Amino acid sequence: MELLASVIPEIAAVRGSALRLPTVPPLAAWAPFWIIVGLMILAVSSWWPSVPAVTAMSLVTLGATGVTITRLRGSTLLWPALVHLVVYGGLYALFVGAALHAADTRLGPRLDAITIGDIIVSLVPMLVAGRLVWAAFECAGDPLDRG
Fold first, then answer.
1. What are the φ/ψ torsions at residue 64 (nearest 5 degrees)?
2. In angstroms, rounded to a whole number, what is the distance separating the alpha carbons of residues 26 and 23?
């Protein structure tokens, strides 16, 4: 019985250290799907201007962020993920600016409900992508922590 008691804490310690390893977030497993859906919507928006292109760009951003986080999993070097988020954030800002500029040059009502809804809905995937990068930084912990 004493042997079993001495082995179980060691197993618990091994399991505890294994739980601290970064894991793939469930949303990152869907990354290729989000990229494909976003690119399909962007392709359709070239023929039909009312399609929400800003939301499509944010879905591509979400998918690309999931792929980047998955690729960097287990690494303490996560600055590429932050640079990735800044680059895609800039692209997102360009898409929002293009949507607002197109609304400004339109005759009749300037901002229609579709453009406003597109920008509001597109915030959700962008915030989720930011949260994925934040979670990756939290999982990585201190690179100098050897314990």
1. -65, -35
2. 9
The Cα-based distances of 60 to 54, 57, 84 in angstroms read: 10, 5, 12
% of the chain surpassing 90 pLDDT: 38
pLDDT digits (tens, 9 = 90+) for 7-59: 444 444 444 444 343 455 566 678 999 999 999 999 999 898 788 999 999 99
DSSP conformation letters of 19-54: HTS----GGGGGHHHHHHHHHHHHHHHTT-TTS-HH
Using alpha carbons, select from 79, 72, 74, 43 the residue that is nearest to residue 59: 43
Look up the pTM and report it.
Answer: 0.74
State the Cα–Cα distance between residues 129 and 120, nearest whole angstrom.
Answer: 15
Q: Are 65 and 85 in contact (CB under 8 A)?
A: yes
* C-alpha closest to that of 69 among 121, 15, 17, 30: 30
Amino acid letter, residue 131: R
